[in-house]
Design brief:
Layout lengths: L3 E5 L6 H17 L5 E5 L5 H8 L5 E4 L16 H6 L4 E4 L2 H6 L4 H13 L3 E6 L3 H5 L3 H12 L6 E4 L13 H14 L5 E4 L4 H8 L6 E4 L6 H10 L1
Parallel strand pairs: 1-2, 1-8, 2-3, 3-4, 4-5, 5-6, 6-7, 7-8
The structure holds 1,3-dihydroxyacetonephosphate (13P).
Subunit structure: Homodimer.
Family: Belongs to the triosephosphate isomerase family.
Enzyme class: isomerase
Length: 235
């Protein structure tokens, strides 16, 4: 199966640094082409400027979130159709930061994923247990119920991101990642499953070699052009 390498820039950078990051990736892509599908997800205000840089490349653009509604009186929200209009092909939904900070639940996340599919975007639906759930042996059950409730029918990507591995430098071991990915693969046959949480160029190959890992969702390391490209080369 093709591999996906997705960079989630989160709320980082300003217009000039986002433009430079995108331009740097386009240069690297020309110098060192990769087999993987590479997607970058900049902050909303910089989607346009990044889209312009990516125009003549094979790099893809994604949003970091979208509204659960199609259009209307939803001040501050951005619709999946708008993202498509800005040339996005992908959108992250249900990131654990939004689940925790904004109380997003599986129903809302499924609605966002459905809006994305209706707008011809591929949703990247995030799931993952927190530290307490991992330590009390509930990881499998928590992730299973997130997948059952948040993933609609249709062409989606699922990203397994254990909350305790995000931005911490800690990663689960290969058997912990493999166990969760295998369970998701059984539940959603044919759906590509990405891993996210403290991915760097030094651990990318090892994680990509785990069965049922079809790509990586990268946070911090995606803000460094050379480092992110090394991760793409590992796929
Ligand atoms: O949240 C993440 C990607 O969505 C992972 O972030 P880090 O790679 O910084 O741990």
């Amino acid at each position: 199966m093709n591999k996906w390498i997705v960079g989630n820039w989160k709320m980082n950078g300003m217009m000039s640094s986002c433009r430079d990051l995108a331009a740097g990736l386009v240069t690297l892509e020309q110098e060192k082409p990769v087999r993987a599908t590479v997607v970058v997800c900049p902050p909303y205000p910089y989607l346009g400027v990044v889209a312009l840089r990516l125009m003549d490349s094979s790099l893809h653009l994604g949003g970091q979130d979208c509204s659960a509604h199609e259009a209307g009186a939803f001040t501050g929200q951005v619709s999946a159709k708008m993202l498509k209009d800005l040339s996005c092909g992908y959108v992250i939904v249900g990131h654990s930061e939004r689940r925790a900070q904004l109380n997003e639940n599986n129903d809302l996340i499924r609605q966002k994923a459905q809006q994305s599919l209706a707008a011809s975007l591929t949703p990247i639906i995030c799931v993952g247990e927190n530290l307490e759930e991992r330590e009390t042996g509930k990881a499998i059950d928590v992730v299973l119920s997130q997948v059952q409730q948040a993933v609609p029918k249709g062409k989606c990507l699922i990203a397994y991101e254990p909350v305790w591995a995000i931005g911490t430098g800690k990663t689960p071991n290969a058997s912990q990642i493999g166990e969760i990915h295998q369970m998701i693969a059984r539940q959603n046959p044919g759906t590509p499953i990405l891993y996210g949480g403290s991915v760097k160029s030094s651990n990318a190959s090892e994680i990509l070699a785990i069965p049922h890992v079809h790509g990586l969702l990268v946070g911090g390391a995606s803000l460094d052009t050379a480092e992110f490209w090394k991760i793409a080369e590992a796929a």
